[in-house]
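Hi, here's the filled form for the chain we discussed.

Project: internal
Contact: R.S.
Residues: 240
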Amino acid sequence: MEKRQELYKGKAKTVYATDDAQRLIMHYRDDVSAFDGAKLAKLEGKGETNNRINAWVMGKLAAAGVPTHFVALLNERESLVKAMKMVPVECVVRNVCAGSMAKRYGIAEGTKLAEPIFEFFLKSDALHDPLCNEDHIRVLGWATPREIDEMKAITHRVNAVLKPLFAGAGIDLVDYKLEFGHPADDPQGPLVLGDEFTPDGCRLWDATTGEKLDKDRFRRDLGGVIEHYREVARRIGVPL
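And the returned structure, exactly as it came back:
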């Protein structure tokens, strides 16, 4: 697989074309950001750690029948993925009240929820990823009714796989976000999970102590960001 020109540079990853139009290379950098890019830093080892965690999680999801864009781990910082046309919304599942949900509704952070709560957000840094509902998505043309149903169904399937997996490692899967799209070679086909699943995009707390093991350590200046990311990897069995 030949790596070619840079196609897109996000806050923490760079995407490159390859000699196969249906395959891209996702490069994980050491950059970390919060608050829509207002807080930035470089943390040595972050790119490699997240690349390996994501590859492991995507493998577990694929084995459970969840369709993903992940193809293969190429090296310490790069993975091969399917080229995708993404849906411009994020899907969030909350198993425990935290973050923006706690602030929005005045509920104490750490409140256990009777069942998972699903939320949609428009993917837009400029607008700070506003909360939206199915009517917004459908009427404004961000996704079709079929895509809305598929995103919700797959997101709940992911929760059913990952929540017990992390629990077995003594970690509470508090919440997480997912992004979906269609493979470039099948734009009318079923949706596929894209982007990544790493401590950058979810909240993970020690099940006994409540210690934060995710990007909140960076957001809240708690320190030890990479050490705790690597602790997550160690507990769930990711080879580093």
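Let me know if anything looks off before we file it.
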